[in-house]
Amino acid sequence: MPRDNMASLIQRVARQARITFRSPAGPAFGENLHRLQQLLDEVRAEDLHLVPRGPSAAAAAGGGIPWGGAVPPVSYMHICETESFSMGVFLLRSGACIPLHDHPGMNGMLKVLYGTLRIACMDTLPPGAAAAAAPPPSAGGGPCHRALYRSRQHYTPASPPCLLSPHTDNLHQIDAVDGPAAFLDILAPPYAPQHGRDCHYYRLLEGQPPAGAEPPGLPREVWLMETPQAADFWCGGEPYPGPRV
């Protein structure tokens, strides 16, 4: 039997990720990335031995050690990590949010396994270009950055993977909509603060539109303020139940 037929789908995803991201500047990167996207699009919760959770089950099985007596809003199942990529599963409780954050110099792929996610994607803009508007006042906050708010879409298991690159859709916020949700996540290369790949969090500096008004259209230029990690966001850990990678 051919090796690919013997390997589980997630093992084939990991193998293709290793091929794709070992030479991200190589001539075959686009083709390899497309093949990885096709494989990732096939992955379902049952391939990783995950059972979709209801709201009460998610609260009871949040995993990890409770922080401050509370269940983590988000949990992570580590699958594998190499120098060129990391792969794991994020599980979000109903109503949980992974705040707006960046992935410096990194590629990423996100595939929903169950539930519905609302993902807002943004790009940072070069500081030298003329700004469309001055930044709104911030009360003693961190540095402000110009960004292009590109998209805000819902993703389900039927959706193709959400992709990010070092320059496109590199900042995103992820919200669980109408119940718990889980997604398979690939980052290449992994976060590594010692190599300048640390995660930074941001807050969108714009007010809410008046009641009954249409939200501003996308894409549009916005201002972001760099912030510390929110006190109500942290990530617990859970064992990964799927095929060994």
Task: Describe, in short, the structure shown.
GO terms for molecular function: metal ion binding; oxidoreductase activity, acting on single donors with incorporation of molecular oxygen, incorporation of two atoms of oxygen. With 245 residues, the chain is an alpha+beta fold.
Question: What would your notes on this structure say?
Answer:
By secondary structure, the protein is of the alpha+beta class. The protein has a single domain, classed as Sandwich (Jelly Rolls), CATH 2.60.120. Helices cover 15% and strands 35% of the residues. The chain has four helices and ten strands. It has helices at 3-6, 9-21, 29-42, 55-60; strands spanning 74-81, 86-92, 97-101, 107-124, 144-155, 162-164, 171-188, 201-204, 220-227, 235-237. Strands 1, 2, 3, 4, 5, 6, 7, 8, 9 and 10 form a ten-stranded mixed sheet that branches. A hairpin with a 4-residue loop joins strand 1 (74-81) and strand 2. Helix 2 (9-21) runs antiparallel to helix 3. The chain is globular. The two termini are 20 Å apart. 30% of the residues are buried.
Through-space gap between termini:
20 Å
User: Could you estimate the helical fraction of the residues in percent?
Assistant: 10-25%
Task: Provide the CATH top-level class.
Answer: Mainly Beta
**How would the global form be characterised?**
globular
Rg calc? 19 Å
CATH superfamily: Jelly Rolls
How many structural domains are formed by the residues? 1
Oligomeric category? single chain
* Beta-strand segment tally: 10
- Average pLDDT confidence is 88
CATH architecture: Sandwich
CATH topology: Jelly Rolls
Specify the number of helices. 4
Overall SS class: alpha+beta
**The biggest beta sheet, please?**
10 strands, mixed
Output the helix-strand order: HHHHEEEEEEEEEE
Beta-strand share of residues: 35-45%
Low-confidence stretches: 1-5, 57-68
